[in-house]
User: Which sequence fits this backbone?
């Protein structure tokens, strides 16, 4: 069953249930990762591989945001880049991926409002050009995956949830993301982003170079419809086969909107 915008999309900014502490969806870890997980902690006994699962949640508490911040800071520091702690903002939400309560993935979604976007600080003219043509702009920030437990399924799943929340729920039509230049090829090849602004130094990151990249979200919708959920069975070399299937997307939407 294919998901369409008409049968799942609510009006923009529709109020959602406040109880986001529940798991949105969980998926079994691929077998090699399940085996790795079991070997990372001493004293784990009589635990079958099928019990190892990745859970996707919203970060609603300060404790969860601190945990997400630690992962972001760890991954950014490994690459030599600073990262500020995550905070609550009225126009942002942070997603988590956990396994046995350990945070292994996070991303923050921002949607345009009177507060603006983080991208406005370096790329306001470029973002304003999107707004001027009627785009509802959202952005991805602080994407981090624990390399010891992460996988294409985890990365695809958390970005797909960001799409559901930003596009299908908040009505964003276009996404932007600031990346370091060395990551440009990844976002282009794996997700279809294209460079929108020139390289500029970011004063909030010790003047590390930044690039603004842009993706019309109808491209993401098409790719989900074509290959979402197919994984290794797809010949598509992008990340989209590791997104959820259109059927799973519809179920996630219903869960979010109905609080069930």
Assistant:
């Amino acid at each position: 069953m294919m998901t369409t915008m008409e049968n799942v999309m609510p009006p923009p900014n529709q109020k959602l249930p406040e109880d986001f502490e529940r798991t949105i969806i969980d998926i079994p870890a691929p077998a090699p990762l399940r085996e790795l997980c079991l070997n990372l902690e001493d004293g784990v006994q009589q635990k079958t591989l099928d019990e190892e699962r990745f859970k996707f949640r919203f970060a609603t508490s300060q404790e969860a945001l601190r945990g997400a911040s630690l992962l972001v800071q760890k991954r950014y520091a490994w690459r030599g880049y600073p990262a500020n702690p995550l905070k609550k903002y009225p126009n942002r939400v942070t997603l988590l991926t956990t396994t046995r309560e350990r945070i292994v993935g996070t991303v923050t979604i921002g949607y345009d409002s009177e507060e603006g976007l983080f991208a406005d600080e370096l790329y306001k003219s470029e973002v304003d050009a999107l707004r001027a043509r009627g785009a509802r702009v959202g952005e991805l920030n602080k994407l981090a995956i624990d390399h010891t437990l992460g996988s294409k399924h985890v990365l695809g799943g958390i970005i797909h949830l960001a799409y559901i929340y930003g596009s299908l729920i908040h009505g964003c039509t276009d996404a932007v993301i600031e990346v370091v230049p060395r990551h440009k090829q990844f976002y282009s090849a794996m997700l279809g982003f294209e460079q929108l602004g020139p390289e500029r130094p970011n004063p909030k990151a010790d003047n590390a170079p930044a690039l603004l990249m842009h993706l019309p979200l109808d491209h993401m919708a098409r790719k989900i419809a074509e290959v979402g959920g197919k994984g290794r069975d797809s010949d598509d070399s992008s990340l989209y086969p590791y997104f959820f299937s259109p059927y799973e997307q519809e179920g996630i939407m219903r869960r979010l909107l109905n609080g069930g």
In short: The helical segments are 5-8, 31-40, 62-78, 120-132, 152-169, 184-191, 217-227, 246-258.
